[in-house]
What does this fold into?
Amino acid sequence: MNLLFQKNFQRVFGTFPLTGNQLRDSIETAADVGYRAFDTAQMYGNERETGLALRDTKIPRSELCIISKIHPDNYTEANFIKSLELSLSDLQIDQLDVLFLHWPPTQIAFDATLELLEKAHDLKLVNAIGISNFNSQMMERTNAKIQTKILANQVEFHPLIDQCVLLRKASETEIPLMSYSAISRGKIFEFEILHKIASEYGKTPAQIVLRWVLQKGVIANSMSTNKKNIEANYNIMDFTLSSIDMARIDTLNKTGFRVVTKEKAPWAPDWD
Ligand SMILES: NC(=O)c1ccc[n+]([C@@H]2O[C@H](COP(=O)([O-])OP(=O)(O)OC[C@H]3O[C@@H](n4cnc5c(N)ncnc54)[C@H](OP(=O)(O)O)[C@@H]3O)[C@@H](O)[C@H]2O)c1
It folds into this structure.
């Protein structure tokens, strides 16, 4: 079974843009609350601090799912494995649970970068591999190219964005989606319907949104620095949204709001 859908790993604690005491305290709280999957990246510049914070939790390594992502600048023969080894040393581990390509490679470097990702897996530096911010056509190309199982495509996923093309491709390619910015960095709270549904279930709007993500078959990945919010975001397994309420939330996708726009991310592909 896909590692991310196992055990406790369907709820992932994100670490961007945290550093310093805020990162350490948030990871400590998240671990206390029950999170066991943690998402970092070379680009966040916090792998070393994440490693220290995870070590300090004293949670056995075997119970953790440590996820990181290669910076696109390192998609070269010379840098890929070398940078990954540095990430492992910063995180104080021998093997990552999941390594993502943070952004799609250029057209010309596409196949070669996938080969480097597979090489990292063959060298046992990573237990599993994934892609991030790939569009549906890139998911297909990845599937055709690569022999090793791709654990997930990590993409922006919340009710304000219509990701039905990616969801369809996920089931066709058997590359499931993992979310990022699952609560749209708070934008979602502007929409009255979520507050209404939240009060009907006796939950918070963030819990409704994260539950909606899980019921879409997508891994929930969110970040918070606030203990109450971290607890709420983790405690989403004791209720189920009805199909009617899932559909009510689906209607929000007409807003087409994106947290990570092309302006913010020079590596962004043509989104579906
Ligand atoms: N692959 C990629 O390209 C990519 C891109 C972006 C992000 N990511 C990953 O995805 C993770 C999550 O995404 P994100 O951090 O961008 O956005 P997010 O989780 O949607 O939003 C985080 C923001 O929401 C607030 N928040 C969290 N829980 C809340 C709650 N229950 N009630 C009210 N406010 C709440 C937090 O404030 P408080 O601290 O005050 O709670 C924080 O400001 C990142 O940390 C990162 O690991 C990956």
